[in-house]
Specification:
Shape: globular
CATH superfamily of the largest domain: YVTN repeat-like/Quinoprotein amine dehydrogenase
Oligomer: single chain
Number of strands: 37
Number of helices: 9
Strand order of the largest sheet: 3-31-32-33-34
Distance between the termini: 94 Å
CATH architecture of the largest domain: 7 Propeller
Largest sheet: 5 strands, mixed
């Protein structure tokens, strides 16, 4: 009789109302796990560090949960493996049935939901019959990941949180393409020639690629007279900024299966011309669209799409002069987050990153013909763009990659010096000159930034580290320099750092993962948040001071803002707007 009772406990019958597993341990585990998720998401922990810590937390919790389950004497061995099989099948099935934009998230995020549903059902069904308890547990496990089949994603926000919509909702791109009826530019805007004027903005982060607006004063009393909206239009996906030349605005966007370079009337937003190239890049983290910004030079537009096509177009009419497939020229595979290089034009050459092997990382094409002029080994991974600088009286092209920093003689492609700092991608920021021969280099997502000193002794160049700071761990947000102080993002918080020492002066502005411009003549910073908010901040090291703010555009905003000819231009992957800021 004693034996029969023991068997009844270990293998309970449905009719006798058998005991079920005590659930305090799995429920406690999942409560601890989700409490950690909530706390870590509310903290200022860097995105990838947070992701890794959350994955680690689930691995620990999940292993304890599984050990408890597999060695629990109150569950039949057959049921143990049936439920375990359901726990594995649930996220796999959800992945198969989900929209492609959801990517790997049904697996990565589905398993924690499975374990949560598992623990929750065992808690709620303690008094249910064993058959109901077991069957309901399997149903709950599959329902736990069903949410993934109902949603789609538009990538991640800068802090790593997914941008989620219902699957049946039209995407902003679908809505844009369905309703696209572009405003036509005035007739006088078409044709003629296009020439650079004082106060124009000819390429990525301005003429010097340093994010500095010079010779310009704007109205800074936004409380009394906020910036006036001039025009606002929908636009296709893309993380490109804009170039402003001779009353025209140049940018790039995705239109379905075409990567498009667009020329608009800067005064109205009306389309003057567009040039389409077949190609679409998409990834689950940053979504669709081109990443680079068009560069104007000598009547031409140079633009590189996210799939690697480099275009040389007539700026007046958009006619193609030549094009190159950069990835084919460098024998490179597609980078994980697409080709992000904004072309640099110098010495009659257009320089872009090619991500190639065998010495073909950085590649220069002749502006007139598109022929390859030189190639340089510049690392295997980078999402940065070439930067022109003058050091020791000599012009140089600087470039940051997973290998470190390389300096190249523009005309010949001869390597002048290297700063070896091997590391993992992504490295996406521009090198920042902070004094004669002094260069700030940010060495990757959530990594420290180094200030290096470059000097020439005879014919030999050297690059040595002056200091390293962890106060500028910027994911993909460039810095600016003003009067000896560096301003930019430390993770998701705006900060000021002393350029001499790397010491933090303040860290207070909360603009997500936005971008910044320096209006040098007035000593003010214009910050565009990753949600489209525009703020004016005093460029002062003593304390953070926001002078004014307004909502510029809506939606996830990673694109660099531009000020040209007294107007502010902001865009993201959904809309573009122009404001009067004089």
């Amino acid at each position: 009789m004693t034996t029969d009772a023991a068997v009844a406990i270990e293998y309970p019958s449905q009719s006798s109302g058998p005991a079920k597993p005590r659930v305090w341990l799995p429920v406690t585990l999942m409560v601890i796990y989700w409490a950690y998720i909530l706390i870590s998401n509310m903290s200022e922990m860097p995105m990838f560090s947070r992701f890794l810590s959350q994955m680690g937390a689930f691995i620990v919790v999940g292993l304890i949960f599984l050990i408890w389950w597999l060695f629990n004497r109150r569950v039949k061995w057959a049921d143990k493996f049936i439920v375990l099989g359901a726990a594995i099948a649930s996220p796999v099935l959800a992945k198969a049935l989900s929209d492609k934009t959801v990517g790997p998230f049904p697996i990565m995020n589905g398993l924690p939901l499975v374990f949560t549903g598992w623990a929750l059902w065992m808690l709620l069904a303690q008094k249910a019959r064993y058959g109901v308890w077991r069957g309901g547990l399997i149903v709950m496990i599959f329902l736990s990941t069903a949410i993934f089949t109902l949603i789609r994603m538009e990538g991640l926000h800068g802090a790593g949180m997914p941008d989620v919509y219902w699957r049946w909702q039209k995407s902003a791109e679908e809505d844009y393409l369905a309703r696209r009826n572009p405003t036509t530019a005035p007739a006088q805007a078409k044709g003629g020639t296009v020439a650079l004027r004082a106060g124009d903005w000819p390429g990525f982060r301005g003429a010097n690629r340093d994010g500095v607006v010079r010779g310009v004063s704007i109205n800074t009393d936004w409380n009394k007279s906020p910036p006036r909206l001039v025009w606002r239009h929908p636009i296709g996906p893309g993380w490109s900024s804009v170039s402003i030349v001779d009353g025209r605005l140049f940018t790039q966007e995705q239109r379905g299966e075409h990567d498009v370079v667009v020329c608009m009337d800067a005064a109205t937003g009306g389309e003057i011309w567009s040039h389409d190239e077949s190609g679409r890049f998409w990834d689950p983290l940053s979504s669709a669209g081109p990443r680079g910004t068009p560069t104007f030079d000598n009547g031409r537009i140079y633009a590189q799409g996210a799939t690697g096509t480099l275009l040389c177009l007539d700026a007046a009419g958009g006619n193609k002069i030549w094009s190159r497939d950069v990835l084919a020229d460098t024998n490179a595979k597609m980078p994980d987050w697409g080709v992000c290089s904004s072309p640099l034009v110098t010495h009659g050459l257009v320089v872009v990153y090619g991500a190639g092997q065998g010495g073909k990382g950085l590649i220069a094409y002749r502006c007139e013909s598109g022929d390859v002029a030189w190639t340089v080994n510049a690392g295997m991974y980078s999402y940065s763009s070439a930067q022109l600088a003058t050091i020791g009286g000599q012009e140089q092209v600087l470039f940051i990659s997973d290998a470190g920093v390389v300096s190249v003689e523009p005309a010949s492609g001869k390597v002048l010096w290297k700063y070896d700092a091997p590391g993992q991608p992504p490295r996406s920021l521009q090198p920042l000159m902070v004094g004669e021969g002094k260069i700030l280099v940010q060495l990757g997502l959530e990594s420290a930034a180094d200030l290096i000193d470059v000097a020439k002794n005879g014919d030999a160049w050297s690059a040595t580290k002056i200091w390293t700071t962890k106060n500028l761990k910027s994911p993909f947000n460039d810095f600016v320099l003003h009067e000896g102080y560096i301003y930019g993002f430390d993770n998701t918080i705006f900060a000021c750092v002393d350029a001499k020492t790397g010491e933090k002066k303040w860290r207070k502005g909360r603009y997500g993962t936005g971008q910044v411009l320096l209006i040098a003549d007035q000593g003010v910073l214009l910050v565009l948040s990753d949600k489209g908010k525009v703020a004016l901040v005093a460029a002062k090291p003593d304390d953070f001071q926001e002078l004014g703010a307004f909502e510029g555009i809506e939606g996830k905003t990673w694109n660099h803002p531009v000020i040209a000819q007294g107007r502010l231009y902001v865009r993201n992957s959904q809309e573009i707007a122009c404001y009067e800021v004089k």
